[in-house]
Amino acid sequence: MSKHLTKRAEDYSKWYNELVVKADLAENSAVRGCMVIKPYGFAIWEKMQAELDRMFKETGHENAYFPLFVPKSLFEAEEKNAEGFAKECAVVTHYRLQNDPDNEGKLRVDPEAKLEEELVVRPTSEAIIWNTYKGWIQSYRDLPLLINQWANVVRWEMRTRLFLRTAEFLWQEGHTAHATKAEAIAESKQMQEVYATFAENFMAMPVVKGAKSESERFAGADDTLTIEALMQDGKALQAGTSHFLGQNFAKAFDVKYTSKEGKQEHVWATSWGVSTRLIGGLIMTHSDDAGLVLPPKLAPIQVVIVPIYKGEEQLDAISEKVSVFVKELRAKGISVKFDNRDTFRPGAKFAEYELKGVPVRIAMGKRDLENGTVEVARRDTFEKQTVAQDEVVDFVANLLEEIQENLFAKALDYRNNHITEVDTFDEFKDVIKNKGGFVSAHWDGTIETEDKIKELTKATIRCIPNDAKEEEGACVFTGKPSSRRVLFAKAY
């Protein structure tokens, strides 16, 4: 397959789709709307998973696992949640196949094997988890209950795109129960902070922290907190959400606890999650026309070493030198690959690792052997430098930190230059159409206005920023009074 990519400026969507496939991250599967995550793509997810899992455990959460199937009656128990996900549900109705008497060699659903109760393939797990929590929670001593699960979910999406929107995807979902409203609200805010810290410190992806408008909230939530990122094409990406569920699920599943005073009280709940769409966000935040650009903290291979040689003798001499600093780099926790394959020329290897976004490439040839040097190239800026072999370990360790910081600074600069304040609807439409990014505008707080703006511009309210200042103004669409600005954007 040709490694040449469509230019971002020509067709951003095509560039993205080609990059995901050509960089060996994922591919479409035989199942409509589902993807195969390939080893290199899954390695990125594993690194994300490891860091997030550590952060969850540091904040007191434990992992568990709940069934993939949810009895329909349980799914229906919390009406808003059921209604919100109903159109995306896959449903199991039968439990057996049999030979088809009318079509030899084929199978059909056994009509005698109809389930007594249909099973929903989980689009989210609140229903099955809260039904379970009813048996786990009796007393205030059982609270708070802080559970997370790493799982797959199914949402029968009609229009799919690798990583960003697929019928089945991987995620984590936290589900917590608390004695008081204040504790549950504090939990939902804490998890928004965890997600923001991960996005910025590991993904090098700046985010805006805020709350969703009522119409954009999670189905069944009293409040939804979000982190919103901005992609290079000026579209927003909802990168993670944390929901304050109030007592909605506790009441639907009758989850009560006995307080210190001996009174029966419904518990207060949260849920929160991020998914493999973060990989899509990672790609679209940093990558370029040459391929992936990965932040070092999440790159499966942080450093690749390519020998340039003629004959076995030169390769042996290079390998001997390289083995020393490979060992030292690994001792520092840096992942290194020494690519000594003799089936590809150095130029082809350079192109491969450029496409795959490996942050640092080291080349070593005959002249480097003689001079005691190596050539170090960084993926983010394509700069090359000659470095002494006895200094290369510390140089590379520092360079990886510098690349991580540079990627964040570059993305932050782009994001900040694409937050535009507007005061008229003409300005609003002009920015959405011609500049893109976040539009900071006054809104009168009504769903009707929000819907009309979406209908006319395809822009939605991404969030009401946590740091939005009190500011008297007039709604950009209706002219009605408004007390603060919200962020609109077109979004994935």
Secondary-structure-derived class: alpha+beta
What is the count of helical runs? 14
Sheet with most strands: strand arrangement = 3-9-10-16-13-12-11-24-27-23-22
Q: Gyration radius, to the nearest Å?
A: 26 Å
Portion of residues in helices?
25-40%
> How much of the polypeptide forms β-strand, as a percent range?
25-35%
**Averaged pLDDT:** 97
What general form does the structure show? globular
Runs in which pLDDT lies below 50 for 5 or more consecutive residues are: none
Terminal residue distance: 28 Å
Secondary structure: number of strands = 27
- Summarize the main sheet: 11 strands, mixed
Description:
By secondary structure, the chain is α+β, with helices and mostly antiparallel strands. The protein is 35% helix and 28% strand. The protein is built from 14 helices and 27 strands. An eleven-stranded mixed β-sheet has the order 3-9-10-16-13-12-11-24-27-23-22. It has a five-stranded mixed β-sheet with strand order 18-17-19-20-21, with helices on both faces. Helix 2 (39-58) packs across helix 6 (181-201) and helix 9 packs across helix 12. The protein is globular, with a radius of gyration of 26 Å.
